[in-house]
Amino acid sequence: NDAFGSRMTIEPTAxxxxxxxxxxxxxAIEPGTGSNSVWWSWTPTQPGPVILTTxxxxxxxxxSVYVGNSLTSLVxxxxxxxxxxxxxxxxxxxxxxxxxxxxxxxxxxxxNADNGVQYKIAVSVAPTNQPPGEVALNLTRLxxxxxxxxxxxxxxxxxxxxxxxxRLANLRNTASSRLRVRLVARAGYSYRQxxxxxxxxxNFRIPNIDLGTISLLGSGTIPxxxxxxxxxxxVCPPPxxxxxxxxxxxxVIGVLEEEQAPNWIAHDARLILVGEWPEISGFxxxxxxxxxxxxx
Length: 296
Description:
Radius of gyration: 19 Å
Oligomer: single chain
Order of helices and strands: EEEEEEEEEEEEEEEEEE
Shape: globular
Low-confidence stretches: 87-97, 191-204, 286-296
Strand order of the largest sheet: 1-3-8-5-6
């Protein structure tokens, strides 16, 4: 699905599709920005808002949605580079900013989809000197809609006590099943572990730390087209300074999961908190040792 003419079709009810920007190219008359683009077509059978993200991708992405039947006739509906700034062409299709950490570099947008319209979706590599890689395109109507507020207190070991108020949205036309938010601390300030942006060792991986789950109160569900808020809290681990000059900090990811007995299915994920950088040679920062972490 490198070329617009060879784009892949997404099933109307699909939750995630995969591709790769490795070896992909950019066509001469292609709209938008970025490089190494890949394309899909998606025709929804349910009208209304849907959240698209590149959560789980192994490269820094730009996500764009168009209508039109050829590259020369495409009209952009909505586009986003980084999840902490929702860039749109209309106030009705997204937000200009979010309270999420400014380190959140996945692409994330809200599309107000019309029933039966064929949307053309492009994911390209953002111009940040990062390499191409695998791409995950997620489509969900159960979302961590925004981070309304967050408080944080640093401890003496530079770990962070945090509280965050999350707004959850059910954009379906039916009620959700029981929901919970799973909190995961991950080394590095991204979502993947199998990429090593700016990291000196190709296979340097740090295990996730499970911070537990928080369930919704009451029935634990959200009615059709409903929203609710949930308070999550925990402790982001302190930064680590190994014996070498390289160190890493932790971030906290919130994963929205829905019960489908006997399993819990992940529908959305947001970067909630960025912890402290290690102090190395008198400087606070990644020291070249930023680690990205997996979505699994």
